[in-house]
Amino acid sequence: MFVLAYVLVSLACFVLIAVSGLKLAALVKGAIEVRKNLADGADHGEGPFLKSPLVPAIAVIAAPPDASTGSREYVRRLLALQASNVEVVVVLDDPSEADRAVWIEEFGLAPCFRVPGQALQTSPVRALYAAHAPCRLIVVEKERGGVADCLNAAINASDAPLIAVVEREARFSNRALTSLLRPLMAFSDETIGVCGAAPVPLQSSGLAARIHQIEFLQSRFLKCAALSAWNALLPPTGSVVLLRRDALIGIQGVTGSLLETVVHLHGFSRATKRPYRIRFVAQPVSSPRLPETWAERAALLRRDRSGVRATLSRYGNLSMGFGSLGWLAIPLLFWELYLEPWVTAIGTVVALTATALGFMDPALLGILLAASIGLPILLSMTTVLLEAYAAGSETDAWKFASLLLCSVPENLGCRQFRDIQLMRDSLRPRAS
Asked: How far apart, in whole angstroms, are the C-alpha atoms of residue 234 and residue 224?
């Protein structure tokens, strides 16, 4: 028992310290990439050619769940996106008569005689509507099939070579598309997608918003900026992604969440051994919505966990030809969702029990607590410092200090509660 306790706790300490070291290296790499990316964007700007009629057309696709005020406002924000040749394609998934009437009245829709393509298999389309000029809006009404099916129907309804996917709750700039177009045009031979994500300036003094901001900064540095250097980019929440239509058709369209679709693109491109890149844009084109309350934060975390869980369920097999994506991105998702909570919990329980029974030197318990709590606090503080370095501009001293201080409750209380939820979710049987 004495030897087993020492082995388990020592192994937990080693794994936690090793992962923290890898995360620190990745955070530094990500911050360097963000700083270079921002400098490159400042040097080139958007450029007048990006608004030229010669630029490829873009279809912004969306599948609002209903005809509520929030859904209609979301579509209006999409219509405000600036580009030389852009249209918004909205798909209604088996709408009620009342919802259909609201959409028709709100945007002045009339029957459209455009014939949708058949490149992707979807539920049957009932009707197409178009808004009066100059509003370039196409609305597709179809039988029920789910969000992914709706987005695929939107791809069928437009022949634009570029497809933009914008998360409903993302805070995006009207110039997001022109900012993403430049890297896509500059590397047209191999680039199949571009992802833009940036932190939102803190408007709230709430602890939930500040902790969420720190976690987003870590995700942006690790999963977006650092992994993009190895061509294994994972889009963080609040992203805008511009993808080539032919690449989406090659994987049989959208397969689920934005994360799931991007991972599928990685895997398919590597399996077929085609040269490709999915690039990262650090300019403030889009940012996530920060929660004002703990209930909002819990809802956002549940949604994100659901997307990661679906991605791992479908594409988590490292033998699927993912190459470096499997050895970089997939294990990171596995670690955060499944392994880290259990390694920390088992190590802590064993260490506390063994120390209480006199089997273990309290010093080893101290090392474990330092590895499971102290190092994450330091990583969060380092993330805040690296964000100031990457931004390369003056930072509000109060907001900067408050984020540093919020690193403590983030990792001493909030993270433990989140880990308990993750362990509980992992033990629940999956719905068939």
From this structure: 5
Closest of 28, 410, 409, 375 to residue 215, by C-alpha: 410
Cα 49 to its chain centre, rounded Å, is: 29
End-to-end Cα spacing for the chain: 40
- For strand 191-196 and strand 171-172, is the pairing parallel, antiparallel, or unpaired? unpaired
37-47 pLDDT, tens per residue?
A: 888 765 455 55
Q: Which two tokens stand for residue 130?
A: 């178009």
- Cβ within 8 Å of residue 89, ≥6 positions away: 59, 60, 61, 62, 138, 139, 140, 154, 157, 158
Q: Which two tokens stand for residue 151?
A: 């987005």
pLDDT tens, position by position, 161-191: 999 999 888 889 888 998 888 887 776 668 8
Cβ-proximal residues to 385 (8 Å cutoff; 6+ apart), any chain: 404
Domain ranges of the chain: 2-26+327-427, 58-325
Domain 58-325 has CATH 3.40.50.1820: no
CA distance 106 to 96: 15
